[in-house]
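fyi for ur records
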Amino acid sequence: MPAGRPTKYPKTQKKRDELYQALLDHGAKGLSFECFGGSPAVKEILGSYVCKDTLYEWLKKDPKFSDAKRVFNSVVQQFWEKRGASLTETLEQDPKRKTYSRGSTGAWVFNMINRCGWRSNPDTEEKDNSEVAVSISFSKKTEADDETD
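which gave:
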């Protein structure tokens, strides 16, 4: 007899397809994968919410759910890139300030670094796996050395 609770993962392909689409819709709002289990769509499809650990287990067990997660990542990144592009547009609202931003570009960059794996400094160093020979020699300290110290 298997231990633990029975899975809430949909048994029918129709329900699984609904779950995949709900995941993409969730990503289109810029929301994280980790909070997907608490979304109203999940409760509607499954009858209850699920924790993020359950979502990660489903990724391991269902290749189609895992594929949907990869597409989800692209959808979320597109949402946030569009949001960032809108920050670069300027508005002319205040006559004293010629340009007026729609939001904080610093906050957006920080979000992209954490959410989408962006880096503020690209890795420009080439990795060299060749061996380097180092030669170290030792000698006794003499009285002349003491005088120069």
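DSSP finds six helices and two strands in the chain. thats all i got for now
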